[in-house]
Structure formats: structure tokens, C-alpha cells
Amino acid sequence: MYDVLIIGAGAAGLSAARWCDELGLDTIVLESAEEVGGQLLSVHNPIENYLGVKTANGRELRDRFIEQTQDGDFDLWTNAAIDRVDLKARRVILRSGESLQSIAIIIATGLRRRSLGIPGETEFVGRGIIESGARDRELVKGKDVCVIGGGDAAAENALLLAEVCPTVTLVHRGRKLRARREFAEQLPTHHCVTVFPESVVHRILGTEWVEAVEIERAGALKPFQMAVQGVLIRIGFEPNTDFVREQLELDDRGYVVVGPQQETSVVNVFAIGDVANPLAPTIAGAVGAGATAAKVIASRLKK
Ligand SMILES: Cc1cc2nc3c(=O)[nH]c(=O)nc-3n(C[C@H](O)[C@H](O)[C@H](O)COP(=O)(O)OP(=O)(O)OC[C@H]3O[C@@H](n4cnc5c(N)ncnc54)[C@H](O)[C@@H]3O)c2cc1C
After folding, report:
1. Is 207 helix (H, G, I), strand (E, B) or coil?
2. What is the pTM of this model?
């Protein structure tokens, strides 16, 4: 029996673990991925807006977080696949069969990339569909690529790929790009980049490797196929709440609804970080919410 069971070891979960340890709470952290850090691992730009520390990228900040938590007196299990959770009983059963119980649960499961749900999207992962314009661009160097999405991440990735690809076609649903001005101004004038607004990709086609995408453009009579050998999808994020969907109050987009003390609709169950913060997801917000939840739990347990 633990005092606190934290699910997720991104910025929020690690902060909560650090605070729970400092407050003398017997704590375990379960992380489904191989390594801790969550979204920080996919931040390739410098982080300069998290007060107190500037880092070259998210991984460096994650490493600082590890430095400050690794001597902590709490359990941290990575590759921890959860089979089911009973929030009211505050019990978690892992796929390995282990059953864990705690007085309080903190949900810190963050966000995952939204998917399109179109044919070809899962089949061609690693075979033309790339995850990151920074990390994977050697895989599509010299190839024609399609980037799907109209926000900052799509625009930034399109510009990164345009450094190594002869053509980059950015396809997005809206009339205007949602990306910040710096990107929105550069894209249409870049000699390798073509922007297709009010357009939707219906299918990703190929045999061994991606060969084309099928696009429908507003005003066009019918969808057409465009030859590409690389695809990158950036259409936003959604919260990792499927595993608790039936058990606590979520908003219409699936984010956990919390009160000012990060408490959820279930007694002694808290939610912190991006999973409970649809409006302003930030590292500072995630770290702060972790501290709040830990302090509230400690005061309830009178530690
Ligand atoms: C490209 C990019 C750039 C960004 N730049 C900035 C910036 O400059 N400044 C800033 O403040 N913010 C920035 N952010 C946002 C910031 O990274 C996030 O707000 C913050 O990292 C969220 O932390 P989190 O712990 O709430 O969630 P996450 O980082 O999403 O972590 C959640 C963790 O939970 C784990 N998990 C999920 N489901 C389960 C499960 N069922 N069981 C166990 N574990 C699970 C995940 O594997 C993950 O490790 C950026 C984000 C991105 C993607």
C-alpha cells in the first residue's frame, strides 16, 4: 500500500514525485514508456521560457529533472503497462499481473499526437511516414513530402523538411494557417513549399513505401493523387484519458476536469499537467500542478 500512486512521468509526474518524496509520502510512479520525460523528449528547440533554467532542447531539461529526482526515495517503474484502474478503490492492475494500491492517485498522463484515422496511416509508419522533421529527415532527404496540419508544429516541420527535400506540400483544413506569424509568413514564400488550404488527405497510398497521398481540395471536382515519398502528420494533441474515461468527469474533449487543488470528481484522485490543462499547457504549469497535488495530499494525510 503506497500513499501516492502517480501515473505518468513527464514534467508533471516527476514534479509530483519530487514533492511527494520531500513531504515524506510513500510514492510510486508508473510510466508506460521506456524512458521518462513525456513530451519533453520531442522538444527539439531551445527551452527559454521555463524560469530558472535555459536548455538547448527538451531532453536536456528532462535530464535536469532526472538529476533532481534520481536520489529520491520513491519507486519509479518504466515500461509499466496498465491493464485496468479502479479509481474509487485506488487500485491499479498492471498487464504483468501486479496489483498496486494507494491512498491517493495522481493522473499525469499528458497528451498524445492526434491521428487522422485514414487508410495507410498506421501501415506506413517507418515506411515513409515520419514522426519528426528534425529527427527523421535523413529518411526523406531528397524526396517529395507532404506535411498534414496547419498549426505551429506542422509549419515548423515543413520548414525543416524544406531544407533537405525538393518539394514540401503542406495540406491543412482551414482557410488560413493557425501557425504563428513567423512561420505563416515564411511558408508561402519558400521556393520548395506549396500550401494547400481547405484541403483534406483521405488516404496514404503505396506498396512497400509511401508513394502518394489522395487529397481533396475545396472547390475541386474530385480528389486527386499527388506523388510523395514522405508524409508527416501534425494535427494537434489529445489527452491520454481513455483508461479512466468511464470513471471520472472529463470535458467534451476528454481532458480531466479539476478544481483549484487539482482534485478530480473522485475522492483522493488528482490530475495534473497537460491532461487536465486544455487551455494553457506548459512545463511551468505541469510542474506547478505537481507541487500543488503533492502538498494537498500531504496535508490530507497530515504528513
Ligand atoms: C514540440 C513542443 C514544444 C514545446 N515547447 C514548450 C516550451 O517551449 N515551453 C513550455 O512551457 N512548454 C512547451 N511544450 C509543452 C510542454 O512540453 C508540456 O506542457 C509538458 O511537457 C507537459 O508535461 P506533462 O507531464 O503534463 O505531460 P507529458 O509530457 O505528455 O507526459 C505524460 C507522461 O505520461 C505517460 N503516460 C501516458 N499514458 C500513460 C499510462 N496509461 N500509463 C503510464 N504512463 C502513461 C507518457 O508516456 C508520458 O511520459 C512543448 C511541447 C511540444 C510537443
Report:
1. coil
2. 0.87
